[in-house]
Amino acid sequence: MFYSIKGTLIHTEPSMAVVECGGVGFKCFTTLSTQRALPKLGETVTLYTHLNVREDALDLFGFATKSELNCFKMLTGVSGVGPKVGLAILSELAPEQVAMAAATGDSKTLTRASGVGAKLAQRITLELKDKVKGMQTSGAGFAPAGVVSAATNAGAAVNALTVLGYSPTEAAAVVGRFDSSLPVEELIRLSLKTMAGGMK
Hints:
By secondary structure, the chain is α+β, with helices and mostly antiparallel strands. It is 48% helix and 19% strand. It is globular, with a radius of gyration of 17 Å.
């Protein structure tokens, strides 16, 4: 419903920021990463948003980057992962770290987040990895052909970016711009930065 919100930052608390827009203060639940990226009170801020509708509440979540928002949506799409756990994971790990953990099946990394036990971490990595496989076998193959193989660093980076919600074609096109011998996490970081730049 809401893509983003831009206005004056008028209040912050741990895991929450209030953005005044058109005379209305919007309470946005945030991650620690977004909190660190916020400007000073009274300055203009833009947050990418997600509205969570429940029977008894409408909760607005705000993120400093599109990749963090995409990662939050992917995490909360996993059974047993609510918004609170999604925020906890993204407060502890950057989106590229979450994507890397999911793409490589590294559930232990996710347990660093508060409230995430071994079983939940395993479910997250399994479900997100399955989503990537589903995208690859549904005809949404990587392009351009031959640029990436799942066994290469570039291939692993593309898989990780699809975990964050980017299409395999889009991810492969961006990853293909960089040196494929770079570490996977560096390829993910550079690709996210490039994609974020193109969205502004």
